[in-house]
Predict the structure of Glycosyltransferase involved in cell wall bisynthesis.
Amino acid sequence: MYKNLVVVSDTALYKVNGQVFGFGPVVKELELIQSDFEKIIWIGANRPDKMGVGTLIPVKSVNIKTILIPEMGGKSVREVVKILLLYPYLFFLILKYISTADVIHTRLPSHPAFIAVLISFLFPKKIWWNKFAGSWDPNTLPFFYKFQRSILLKAKHSKVAINGFWEDQPKHCISLENPCLYNTDLIEGKISLKKKVFESPFTFIFIGRLDNAKGVDKIIEALNNIPINTIKQVHFVGDSINKILYENQASFLGNKVNFHGFLSTEQVHELLKKADFLLLPSKSEGFPKVIAEAACYGVIPIVSDVGSITHYINDSNGFVWKISSNKPFEEVFLNAINTDAQDLKEKSNNIVEVATLFTFENYKRKLDEMVFKKGK
């Protein structure tokens, strides 16, 4: 057992009536590995605006101590100045906790995690486990994300967990699937899969932030160009300031469309049990965990080829839209719903195999083999 793990992130946290709430997937990850440490110190962004959002859950473990720091982000002059002024404060705060830690876990791209990575060069003998979310392809990254990636490439004293498998991938950069499922979910998924028949009318689901970058506009456009009687239900899970706009654009679907806002994991899984297709024509991604969650229930993905998606999704288990081609998303969408039911069932059976890679149990095993064993 190690003494202390320090987690440095801009992950959302908030406190109400003495109870801390945190972003669900991260809470579950830390609960999974807490037995390896006497104490976990989690540095994250204070986000009282997230109060009541279903994706944030209670941090119940007494072994996890949270440190709430100011939120950092934005591109306006005022926001950039605020970020720069916070850097010295965060540097010494993070340094204070890192100096007493055995293992440090950073979650990038983010300002606090980037500061921690810079500090890592002062403590190369500690165990560093840096997670880079989003795409690892530098051609798709904004400047600051690309800069953080370049520093991680130099941090050979650490392990850098990335999405997908890349050509000329350095030895210290490890491919590590983000966990979102338990083995019990896989059992539930197999039960659900047996009931799927893939016959019109179909049920479609989108999970994510409601904006054009995620392809919501292309989804609504595609749905508007198929016979209404081929649509049973359409579920949009997620939220944004654009929600009302999309509700108006999708009004032609009448009571066949549902904009749910944020839902708990359990609620999302209930919708996935009834869904036929996952729609995600994003402009940029790493590997969206919603694909793995949907795969658990045999939901066939209709997705774009960005990030590391095609490292897992292909013609045998889904439908991939080549975003840089002249072919519109609508064409791939129509091909999917016009595919023979037997072929769709085969894709559904195949996609379940992808889900097995994204379990918390598999994640813990890989961490033990590739990260924690350094100090044991």
In short: The longest strand covers residues 2-16.
